[in-house]
Amino acid sequence: MVELVGLRRTFPAAGGELVALHGVDLRVEPGEMVAIMGTSGSGKSTLLNLLGCLDRPTAGQYRLDGVSVADLDDDALADVRNVRLGFVFQGFNLLPRTSALEQVMLPMFYDRAGRFPNPEARARAALERVGLGNRLDHHPNQLSGGQQQRVAVARALVTEPALLLADEPTGNLDSATTREVMDLFTELNRGGTTMIIVTHEDEVADYCSRAILLRDGAVVSDAPRRAPVPETRG
C-alpha cells in the first residue's frame, strides 16, 4: 500500500538547510494498522504531510497503492487527497453550523470525476457504519467528543480511500472515549481499511500491529505491537 525509499525532506535555514527526514525507508502492506511515534521534532508530522500528499519530498520515492506520487501534477495530487486518502485530525475539523450528514457529504462535492452520483446515500451509509445512523441531523455542539470524532472518521471513509491517515486522533479525548474511538478503528481495520496513526500515546499504539519510532528524522525502530488483523476487503 505504501512504499517509501530514501525519503528525504529538507527546509532552508540560516547558514544551510534543516533536515527534517533523513532517507526514510518504509513499507506498509494493505490491511495493516501502523503507529508512527516520536517526540516533538522527530519528523513524524513532516512524514505525515508527505504521506498525505500535502507536501513533496526533497528526494526519494513515495509509491501509494502502486502509483509514484512524484509523477503526479497538482491536480492529480488533489484527486489523490480527495479520493485515495482519508484524514482524521486531533481537532475533528467539523463545521459548526453543519449537520453530521452534510459534514460527511463534503468530500464528494469536490470529486471532479463524478464517481459518487448519490452522495447523501453514501454519507448515510458511512455514518451508520460508525454507529451514528441516528445522529444524521445533529450539529457538532449536539454531539460528544467521541461522536464528533466518529463523524470525522465517517467523512474520511466515505470515498472508500486506499489509506486512512490519523494525526493524534485521540489527543482531545478522555481515556474512555479514546478506547471507544480506537475500538472503532480496530473494527474498521478488521474490515480491511489500511491505517497509519501518528500518536505519542502507548495506549493508542497498542491497538496497532506495528509501531514505528522516529528520532531526529530517521526510523530507529519498527516493532510489532499486537497480532496483525487479516485483510478481508477484496
Describe this protein's structure.
There is one protein chain. This protein is α/β, with parallel strands linked by helices and 234 residues long. The chain has a single domain (2-224), classed as 3-Layer(aba) Sandwich (Rossmann fold), CATH 3.40.50.300. The protein is 31% helix and 28% strand. The protein contains seven helices and ten strands. The protein has helices spanning 44-51, 74-84, 100-109, 119-129, 145-157, 175-190, 202-205; strands at 2-13, 16-28, 33-37, 59-64, 67-68, 85-89, 163-167, 194-198, 210-215, 218-224. The strands form two sheets. The chain has a six-stranded mixed β-sheet with strand order 6-7-8-3-9-10. Residues 230-234 have low confidence and may be disordered.
What layout of secondary structure does this protein have?
Layout: E1 2-13, E2 16-28, E3 33-37, H1 44-51, E4 59-64, E5 67-68, H2 74-84, E6 85-89, H3 100-109, H4 119-129, H5 145-157, E7 163-167, H6 175-190, E8 194-198, H7 202-205, E9 210-215, E10 218-224
Parallel strand pairs: 3-8, 3-9, 6-7, 7-8
Antiparallel strand pairs: 1-2, 1-4, 4-5, 9-10
Helix pairs in contact: 3-4, 3-5, 4-5, 5-6
